[in-house]
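Z., the sequence and structure:
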Amino acid sequence: MLERLRIVLIGTSHPGNIGGAARAMLNMGLADLALVAPRCQVQCQESASRASGADALVASASVHETLEEAVADCSLVVGCSARSRNLPWPMITPRAFGATLADEARLPDARVAIVFGREDSGLSNEELQRCHRHVHIPTNPDFSSLNLAAAVQVLAYECRQAWLADQEAAGETPRAEDDQPFGIDWDSPLASHADLERLFEHLEKTLISVDFLDPEHPRQLMARLRRLYLRARPDSMEINILRGILSAMDKQVRLAQADTANRTS
């Protein structure tokens, strides 16, 4: 289970925080670290010092330009945020998130990304809208600011506790329905983050073409549609069906445009 977890740090500005996060990860048995557009030197004396023996994890960290690249192969993306949002999004505590990991890890081709934002500003609204769920660490409301490495430690700890509980439970005889996360053997793997992003891009273009979405005044339409589909957790076949529907709509729009052009020529 732990090998399916990826910690993603966006726009980290201090190498010590990268090293501290690596140390927190290795303490709890996590080893997949991804960095998105870091604003500091990744491998240096400060990051090695703060890693305290986990500097190999810093050296092996993947570096990406965008969040989309870092989580493209992930089936579940969880964003860590301390800020409330105008548009409500599925929100859970670290403990509740950990409780879901065992079932999540049993899904075909499952990979989970836990995303942390910048030290000074956290995750942007756009980045949060690319996450299936948001996790909030219930700190003291009078002093809620957490160091980045400390936040990673909290989530990594809950992940390890979930893994230990699952290992202990594995010694027991499971009920038949426990073998399948949906109660039955599912016929398609969950859609990856890259699959979902291609769907959202296609959906937006189609909605514009049928005059349902005004790009000059989009309001929160795409954000709400993102929330809907991310909450639904569609599988790869369902994504193909939805994109097939959109392609059929695109075809009808082109035919209608061609017919109008012929009539006016």
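Residues 2-179 form a domain with the Alpha/beta knot fold (CATH 3.40.1280.10). The chain has two domains: 2-179, 193-264.

Let me know what you think.
H.
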